[in-house]
Automatic annotation (TrEMBL), chain A:
Keywords: Amino-acid biosynthesis, Branched-chain amino acid biosynthesis, Leucine biosynthesis, Lyase. InterPro entries: 3-IsopropMal_deHydase_ssu, Aconitase/3IPM_dehydase_swvl, AconitaseA/IPMdHydase_ssu_swvl, IPMI_Swivel, LeuD. Residues 1-124 form the Aconitase A/isopropylmalate dehydratase small subunit swivel domain. Belongs to the LeuD family. LeuD type 1 subfamily. This is 3-isopropylmalate dehydratase small subunit. Signal peptide: none annotated. Gene3D superfamilies: Aconitase, domain 4. Its EC number is 4.2.1.33. The keyword RNA-binding does not apply. The keyword Iron-sulfur does not apply. The gene is leuD. CDD domains: IPMI_Swivel (cd01577).
UniProtKB/TrEMBL annotation, chain B:
Residues 12-462 form the Aconitase/3-isopropylmalate dehydratase large subunit alpha/beta/alpha domain. This is 3-isopropylmalate dehydratase large subunit. It comes from Siccirubricoccus soli. The keyword RNA-binding does not apply. Catalyzes the isomerization between 2-isopropylmalate and 3-isopropylmalate, via the formation of 2-isopropylmaleate. It catalyses: (2R,3S)-3-isopropylmalate = (2S)-2-isopropylmalate. Its EC number is 4.2.1.33. Its cofactor is [4Fe-4S] cluster. The lineage of its organism: Bacteria, Pseudomonadati, Pseudomonadota, Alphaproteobacteria, Acetobacterales. Pfam families: Aconitase. [4Fe-4S] cluster binds at C352, C412, C415. GO terms for molecular function: 3-isopropylmalate dehydratase activity.
C-alpha cells in the first residue's frame, strides 16, 4: 500500500449528502481486476450527459481547476452503500488520496485506509464551511497532516481529526494487515483449538 | 481483556466469544466462524495468489454464484457476456483449487448468498459471519454477528480466518405495538430508515427488539436485518428465539440429532441480558407503520403509500433542498403528486431482501386472479433453488404466469443488474430490492422500493397502489 504522510493538494467540493458507492462507480464496471486503471469509471454516469454520453462540463470533476484535485470534500454519509472496494480504487486511480466528510459509509472507511485513501471526518459545520470556501475560490488547496491529525482549510483555519491509531500506523508506513497479523499466529492457533472444541459449526 | 461484569448485549457476547486478542490501541483480532463467498469476489483470490497465500480454514468457507448468473438459463455456456461468464467461472476455479464447497449453477442449493446462508443452516445463532458484501447484515436475523467487508479484508480472512476490527457502538431499535394488515418486515425497516436517516446507525451494530419484531417470521427478520446497512448500520441482529430454532431445525448444515439440543441450549444464553446498556436507543411505534414506498434515491426517502411526493421548498436546509431537487429531477417526479398516481413500467420481485418463500406467497396472493397491467413488465426472481422448488411445489409459479409475470431463475438479477438484467433509462421500477440509488438498476432507471405484496399490487394496477385496498385489509 502507498504510504500517506502529508498532502497539499487542490480539493474539489461535492456538497451533497448520501453520495453512494453506486454513483462513485456503477456496478457494470465491477468485473474489472485491480490491475485495470479505474480512473475513468469514477462517477462514470454522474459526470456524463445521459443522452449523448459526453462529459458534462458542469460536473465539478470535469472543470478545470478541479481536474487536478486530490482531495474530495463531500456531504454526510459519503460512500454509503455497497462494500465495493472498487469505489476506493476509482478515486485512487483518479489521483485522490483523501476524502473529507461529516461521516462515511463504515465499509468504505475501512477500505480507504487499507488502500492509501485517507478518510477524514470533520464536524458538519466545518465541512460546510470548507465547501463554501472551495466553491468561492475554485482551485483552492487543502493541507492534510496525518502525523498531526490536522487539516488546514483554504482560509488557514486548522481542524483536528480522529483516526484509529492502528489505521494511522498502517497508513503512515504503507503497511497492510497481513504483516501485522502474522505476528499473532500462536494466538490464532490457540484460539482455533479452543473454538473448534466449543463450537462445532 | 477481562469481561466487564454485569449484563451484556447479544452483540457483546458474540464479540467476546470470537476475540483472539485485543491490542492496546483497541484493535481486536476476531476469529471468523463462517465466511461466505460469491462471484463478485475474484480480486481477493488475486491478492492471495500474488502473496503466495492459501485459505487457512477452507471448511469454514462456502460459496455460491449470484451476482453474474443469468436468470434466463442455468447453463454457464449460455451466459452471453464473456465478462459475466468469466466471473462465474472464476469462482468455480478458485473454490475448486482450494477445496472450498461451492453451490454452483445447477446445484440444488445455489442462490443469492444471503438467502442461501440462513436457508442451508450455515448461518447460525452466536457465530461471527462475514462476506464481501454489504448486505451480510441479513444473517444477523438468526442471532449471528454478521457484517460485510471489502475485498482486501476478504483476502485477509481467507488467509488468516481472522479480521482486525474496532469495537462498534451498539444501538437498540425497539418496535412495539401490533403491525397492521399488509405491513411487513420491509415496511418496518423502511419506516425505521425514514425515521433515523440513511446515516442514522453509522458506526453502530443494531439489535432489533420489541413485540413487533418478536412477532415477525424468520423471513420478515431477514428482510429487516438485510437493510440495516441502508441505515448506515455495521450489522443488524435479532435475538434467537423459538421462531429461530423452528426455522433452523433440520436444515442441512444446522446441528443434527443430539448436537441440536446442545446447540439450542447454548443459543438460549445469547439474548441480551436484562439491563444491558446500549450506546443508542431508538423506539418506533409499530402500530403506526403503513405500507411504504420510496420516492427518492436514498432508502431514507420513504413514505406511507397514502402520502404525496414532497416539496423541496419544505426542506430543512439548503443542502437537503438541493439534494431533493436533484432526486426529483432524476426520478421524473413533481412535488404534490400522490404516490398512488405514479405509473410504473416494470416490477421486480426478488433480491436478498425479498425473494424468500413468504415473500413470493405474499406477492402471489395479490397476483392470484388478477392480470399485470397493460404495458408493465413484471418479473419474479426467486432467491434460491430451494425457494424456487418450494414455490413451484405450491403452484405459485403458475399463479404468477397466469397473471402475466415472468418466472425466472435464482440470482441477484435486477437488484443491481451486474448480470445484465437492467431497466432502460427513464423506466420506473417498483422493486422489492434494497437500494434506490441513481443508476442502481441501470443508467437512468428510476427505482422505488416496496414490499412484495405492494410490488404485486403495483404490477396489477399499473401504478403504486395501497395493497390493503386491493386485498380488503
Ligand atoms: S440481491 Fe442485490 S443486494 Fe443482495 S447480494 Fe445480490 S446484488 Fe447485493
Amino acid at each position: 500500500m502507498e504510504a500517506f504522510v502529508t498532502l497539499d493538494a487542490v480539493a474539489v467540493p461535492l456538497p451533497l449528502p448520501n453520495i453512494d458507492t453506486d454513483q462513485i462507480i456503477p456496478a457494470r464496471f465491477l468485473s474489472r481486476p485491480r490491475e485495470v486503471n479505474h480512473a475513468d469509471f469514477l462517477f462514470h454516469d454522474a459526470r456524463r450527459v445521459a443522452a449523448t454520453g459526453e462529459q458534462n462540463p458542469e460536473f465539478p470533476l470535469n472543470r478545470e481547476p478541479w481536474r487536478a484535485a486530490r482531495v474530495i470534500v463531500a456531504g454526510k454519509n459519503f460512500a454509503c452503500g455497497s462494500s465495493r472496494e472498487a469505489a476506493v480504487w476509482a478515486l485512487f486511480d483518479a489521483g485522490f488520496r483523501c476524502a473529507i466528510a461529516p461521516s462515511f459509509g463504515d465499509i468504505f472507511r475501512n477500505n480507504g485506509t487499507k488502500n492509501g485513501l485517507l478518510p477524514v471526518v470533520l464536524p458538519a459545520a466545518v465541512v460546510e464551511d470548507i465547501l463554501a470556501q472551495l466553491e468561492a475560490s475554485p482551485g483552492a488547496r487543502i493541507f492534510v497532516d496525518l502525523p498531526q491529525q490536522q487539516v488546514t482549510a483554504p482560509d488557514g483555519s486548522v481542524h483536528g481529526f480522529e483516526i484509529d491509531p492502528f489505521a494511522k500506523h498502517c497508513m503512515l508506513n504503507g503497511l497492510d494487515d497481513f504483516g501485522v497479523t502474522a505476528a499473532y499466529e500462536d494466538d490464532i492457533a490457540a484460539f482455533e483449538r479452543r473454538y473448534g472444541r466449543e463450537n462445532r459449526i | 481483556m477481562s469481561e466487564p461484569a454485569g449484563p451484556r448485549t447479544l452483540f457483546e457476547k458474540i464479540w467476546s466469544r470470537h476475540r483472539v486478542t485485543e491490542r492496546e490501541d483497541g484493535q481486536t483480532l476476531l476469529y471468523v466462524g463462517r465466511h461466505l463467498l460469491h462471484d463478485g469476489g475474484a480480486t481477493a483470490f488475486d491478492v492471495l495468489r500474488k502473496r503466495g497465500l492459501k485459505p487457512r480454514a477452507p471448511d469454514r468457507i462456502f460459496a455460491t454464484p449470484d451476482h453474474y448468473v443469468s436468470t434466463a438459463t442455468r447453463k454457464l455456456a449460455e451466459i452471453e457476456d464473456p465478462r459475466h461468464r468469466e466471473m462465474v467461472e472464476k469462482l468455480a476455479r478458485n473454490t475448486a483449487e482450494h477445496g472450498i464447497r461451492m453451490f454452483g449453477l445447477g446445484d440444488p442449493n445455489q442462490g443469492i448468498v444471503h438467502v442461501v446462508g440462513p436457508e442451508t443452516g450455515l448461518s447460525q445463532p452466536g457465530i461471527l459471519l462475514v462476506c464481501g458484501d454489504s448486505h451480510t447484515s441479513t444473517h444477523g436475523a438468526v442471532g449471528a454477528l454478521a457484517f460485510g467487508i471489502g475485498s482486501t479484508e476478504v483476502a485477509h480472512v481467507l488467509a488468516t480466518q481472522t479480521l482486525w476490527q474496532r469495537k462498534p457502538k451498539t444501538m437498540r431499535i425497539t418496535v412495539d405495538g401490533t403491525l397492521g394488515p399488509q405491513v411487513t418486515g420491509k415496511d418496518v425497516i423502511l419506516a425505521i430508515i425514514a425515521q433515523i436517516g440513511a446515516a442514522g446507525a453509522t458506526e453502530h451494530v443494531i439489535e432489533y427488539a420489541g413485540n413487533a419484531i418478536r412477532g415477525l417470521s424468520m423471513e420478515g427478520r431477514l428482510t429487516l436485518c438485510n437493510m440495516s446497512i441502508e441505515a448506515g448500520g455495521r450489522a443488524g441482529m435479532v435475538a434467537p428465539d423459538e421462531t429461530t430454532y423452528a426455522y433452523l431445525h433440520g436444515r442441512p448444515y444446522a446441528p443434527q440429532s443430539a448436537e441440536w439440543e446442545q446447540a439450542v441450549a447454548r443459543w438460549r444464553e445469547l439474548p441480551s441480558d436484562e439491563g444491558a446498556a446500549f450506546d443508542t436507543e431508538v423506539t418506533v411505534d409499530g402500530s403506526a407503520i403503513r405500507p411504504m414506498v420510496t420516492w427518492g434515491n436514498s432508502p431514507e426517502d420513504a413514505l406511507p403509500i397514502d402520502a404525496a411526493v414532497p416539496d423541496p421548498e419544505s426542506a430543512a436546509d439548503a443542502e437537503r433542498r438541493a439534494q431533493m431537487r436533484r432526486m426529483l429531477d432524476y426520478m421524473g417526479l413533481t412535488p404534490g403528486t400522490k404516490l398512488t398516481d405514479i405509473a410504473i413500467d416494470r416490477v421486480f420481485i426478488g433480491s436478498c431482501t425479498n425473494s424468500r418463500i413468504e415473500d413470493l406467497r405474499a406477492a402471489a396472493a395479490v397476483a392470484d386472479g388478477r392480470k399485470v397491467a397493460e404495458g408493465v413488465t413484471a418479473w419474479v426472481v426467486p432467491g434460491s433453488e430451494p425457494v424456487k422448488r418450494q414455490a413451484e411445489a405450491e403452484g405459485l409459479h403458475e399463479v404468477f404466469r397466469r397473471a402475466g409475470f415472468e418466472w425466472r431463475e435464482p440470482g441477484c438479477s435486477m437488484c443491481l443488474g451486474t448480470n445484465g438484467d437492467i431497466a432502460r433509462p427513464g423506466q420506473r421500477v417498483a422493486s422489492t430490492s434494497n437500494r434506490n440509488f441513481m443508476g442502481r438498476q441501470g443508467p437512468g432507471a428510476r427505482t422505488h422500493l416496496l414490499s412484495p405484496a405492494m410490488a404485486a399490487a403495483a404490477a396489477v394496477t399499473g401504478r403504486f397502489a395501497d395493497v390493503r385496498r386491493l386485498m380488503g385489509g
